[in-house]
Amino acid sequence: MADIDSVLEQVREHYLSAYVVAARDYKIKFDPSSPEVLLEIGGREELPYPYRLYRMDLMSGAVEPPNMTDFNHDSHLTFAPIQFTVSGKLAVRLSSISWNAVEFESSCFARESELLSNWALKWLDVDEINETDEHGFGGYIHSITYPEIESGKCSFSVDFGSASIDSFYELINVFLNLGVKELSIHSGSYHV
User: Are 100 and 18 in contact (CB under 8 A)?
Assistant: First the structure.
C-alpha cells in the first residue's frame, strides 16, 4: 500500500498547495473571507442530509451579495492505473484522480446505507470539531453526491477538499462493508 499512499499524498498535495495559494489571494481581495464554509443546498430536500451539504471552497460576506467561489486546479497529476485488492474481497482499480473530483463506480449497493452517510457526515464535520490549520482548513471533505444508478452500476463523486488520505481509505472500507466486490475510482468526467 506504500505506493498507493505515495500517489494519494501527491494528488492531495498537488491540489491542496494550489488551493492554499488561491485562499491567500482570495483573502487579499475579499476581507473578511473564509475557506470551507458549510452550506445546505436548497432544492435537495428529498435527499438524505449528507447529500444536501456542500462546503464552499471560498466565501466572503465583504460584498453584496456574498461572494462564493469554487476552486478548481488548472492541472492534475496522471499516473498509470493501480490495481489492488482489499482483504481479498474488494478488487479496486485506481486511475488518475483530482482530489476535488473523485468518482467512484461499483456494483449497486443500498444507496441510503448508514455506512456511507455516516462516513460523509464524519468527514464533512458538520459540528466543525476539527481544528483548523494555519490556512483555515479543517481537514473536511467538501461534498458527496447522492449515488446514481445506471446500467446496474452505482456511482457518486466526492470532493475531498482538505481531508486527509485517511478519509479515502475509510471510504474504501465502507465499500468493503457494503459487500461491493469491484470498485473503479477515477476523475474521468473532470479530466475530459
Answer: no
